[in-house]
Q: What sequence folds into this?
């Protein structure tokens, strides 16, 4: 690796740490600032922060890898994600921003659930926090796997060394800078990713005489590559599109809606966020598409499909640009890890420590607990990520489904149905999470396939959770006057 590549990456790391230092000095003196940035994010920062933390290493490794292997049939996931994100912006974002502020300034998703349903027993908060910590630890490990693969493939370093380097930098700025550091670094990282997903496939395309040459090469290798429905049943297409359902329940994404400085900025945030996402998804698919043609034209032999972006970065560009592109992958990985670490830390601090251990803890003490929680979650996730053969896409899909099924229906019903009760919320959350786990690990098959292979686990999880919420609410509708008044107060904001 050329020395200039290392210089570019070094400058990237320094920039991330500098942002963390800035945020440490500006917004971490109290718990609200550390966890939610004081609800002061401008729409551009909130939008790119949501996008960058959403896409993770999956956008530059997982999705191009799927496109490389499966062809256009893998695009259904991208369609589902785009539609899901758009509905999330239109339906969930504005009301959640208002609700969390009206509900006694709820700072976390479990905190919102507890205050929205006036849960004095703390059961709802405890269950929600447990779900977040379990699934985010798994989710964070997927990012560390991607980081380990990046350093292994690009620098020839041992996988575990790459994993440790990735974790060390992201933990440093997350621990000290809190939510503002995470959001500002996400903004910078989102800009880097945006340039990278346009630049790489565009330059790769110049290595061919035209689109016809590319398609002829790909068709010769895989005659069914351009078949949108190749090997896909209706169930498989539904499963791919169902990735979009996950958006309604992802704490690291919806917390950006909570942190936006005003609900009036939501349309601007939505336009920026959806424009960024469209380019990112199309660019990622284009990387996989051009990758198949390039690998076969220049006879590069067998490669790990999830590293095709890395291959292009190393063979097509000047070392300085290579460093920038490697920084883009690190940006995708680190933006998501930092967001997940912070949400997990916030839950451990506000929903466990402050609620069950020391209710009168000072803000200074709670911020310190938050920082230690970041370190704890990162260590556990790092241990899980030591398995080099873990698939980034597989790890992400399991965690994505867990959150989507456990929290998605609950978020939607809680924002629009004033009769919903805390008993219904608890039932929906538990049944959604348990259904996903059963679907993944149950030793049953359909047509010779595991349940998870036959249908993506978020589909049965989301359906079962929704049914549970509806049935339990109908049996005993909400009657607490305080909860009904809160709902009416929010309704007035949208009239």
A:
């Amino acid at each position: 690796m050329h020395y200039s590549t290392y210089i570019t990456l070094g400058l990237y790391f320094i920039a991330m740490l500098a942002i963390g230092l800035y945020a440490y000095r500006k917004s971490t003196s109290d718990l609200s600032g550390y966890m939610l940035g004081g609800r002061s994010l401008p729409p551009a920062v909130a939008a790119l922060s949501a996008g960058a933390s959403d896409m993770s290493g999956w956008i530059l490794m997982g999705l191009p890898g799927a496109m490389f292997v499966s062809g256009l049939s893998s695009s259904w996931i991208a369609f589902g994600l785009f539609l899901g994100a758009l509905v999330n912006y239109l339906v969930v974002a504005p009301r959640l921003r208002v609700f969390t502020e009206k509900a006694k300034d709820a700072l976390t998703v479990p905190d919102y659930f507890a205050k929205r349903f006036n849960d004095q027993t703390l059961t709802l908060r405890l269950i929600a926090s447990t779900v977040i910590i379990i699934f985010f630890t798994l989710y964070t490990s997927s990012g560390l796997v991607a980081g380990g693969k990046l350093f292994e493939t690009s620098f020839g370093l041992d996988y575990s060394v790459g994993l440790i380097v990735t974790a060390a930098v992201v933990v440093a700025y997350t621990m000290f800078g809190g939510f503002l550091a995470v959001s500002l670094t996400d903004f910078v990282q989102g800009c880097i990713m945006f340039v990278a997903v346009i630049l790489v496939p565009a330059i790769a395309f110049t290595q061919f005489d035209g689109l016809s040459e590319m398609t002829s090469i790909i068709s010769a290798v895989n005659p069914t590559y351009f078949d949108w429905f190749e090997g896909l049943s209706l169930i498989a297409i539904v499963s791919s599109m169902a990735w979009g359902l996950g958006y309604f329940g992802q704490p690291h994404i919806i917390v950006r809606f909570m942190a936006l400085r005003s609900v009036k900025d939501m349309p601007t945030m939505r336009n920026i966020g959806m424009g960024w996402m469209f380019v990112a998804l199309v660019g990622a698919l284009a990387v996989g598409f051009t990758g198949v043609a390039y690998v076969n034209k220049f006879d590069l032999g067998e490669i790990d499909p999830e590293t095709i972006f890395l291959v292009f970065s190393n063979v097509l560009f000047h070392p300085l640009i290579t460093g920038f592109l490697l920084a883009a992958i690190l940006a995708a990985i680190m933006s998501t890890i930092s967001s997940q670490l912070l949400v997990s830390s916030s839950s451990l601090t506000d929903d466990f420590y402050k609620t069950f251990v020391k209710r009168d803890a000072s803000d200074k003490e709670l911020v310190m607990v938050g920082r230690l929680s970041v370190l704890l979650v990162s260590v556990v996730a790092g241990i899980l990520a030591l398995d080099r053969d873990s698939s980034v896409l597989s790890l992400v899909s399991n965690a994505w489904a867990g959150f989507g099924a456990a929290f998605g229906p609950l978020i939607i019903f809680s924002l629009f149905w004033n009769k919903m009760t805390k008993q219904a919320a608890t039932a929906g959350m538990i049944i959604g999470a348990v259904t996903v786990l059963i679907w993944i690990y149950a030793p049953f098959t359909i047509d010779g396939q595991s349940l998870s292979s036959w249908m993506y686990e978020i589909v049965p999880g989301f359906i079962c959770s929704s049914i549970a919420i509806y049935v339990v609410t109908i049996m005993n509708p909400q009657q607490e006057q305080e909860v009904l008044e809160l709902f009416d107060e929010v309704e007035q904001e949208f009239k």
Q: What stands out?
A: The chain has one domain: 3-391. The radius of gyration is 22 Å.
